[in-house]
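User: Structure please.
Assistant: Input sequence and predicted structure:
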Amino acid sequence: MMDVTSGKGSRCVVFFSVPGETYVNGKYEERDPGNTKVAATILSMELDCLSMEIVPKDLYSRKYRGQVERAKKEWVESHRPALRSCPDISGYDDVYLCYPNWCGTIPMPVATFLERNSWEGKTIHPLCTNEGSGMGTSVEMIATCAPGANIAEGLPIRGTDVKSCGDSVKRWLARSRWMDA
């Protein structure tokens, strides 16, 4: 399914997010919607642009342990899960890519999305939600999966801070090229 926000220009927000449990400060917390969807919604509103969701064919467990087990297995096997919804970014120059840090990098459904699109002449602006591990090696993995893309400065956002990340998003966007135009 796609979450669409009416927008303008040649930029869009693409996100992958899983609702359900997350592990914060030694305990499980329910997050619905997922942290990354919250951040992507804030970003899309700031940019006034279309927002599209990466949705795997087989949804992830809402339980944290189930998510972690599947994510680790996919990462170890370099598995690219089939997608129910793979956004088409052919009409966009700037793609703001929002994802959680899984196994120190991008989730494998994000790798599937990246590898299914052409990136020549496009810029990817990564936004990574995490609980203290920052961007990990996600920027390097994005570059590997999206040959030809320019990779802009990324923004790591702690999941615990996602609901109040508006100012961080604004500062990050102020450094982006599109605001200088």
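The chain is about 30% helix and 25% strand.
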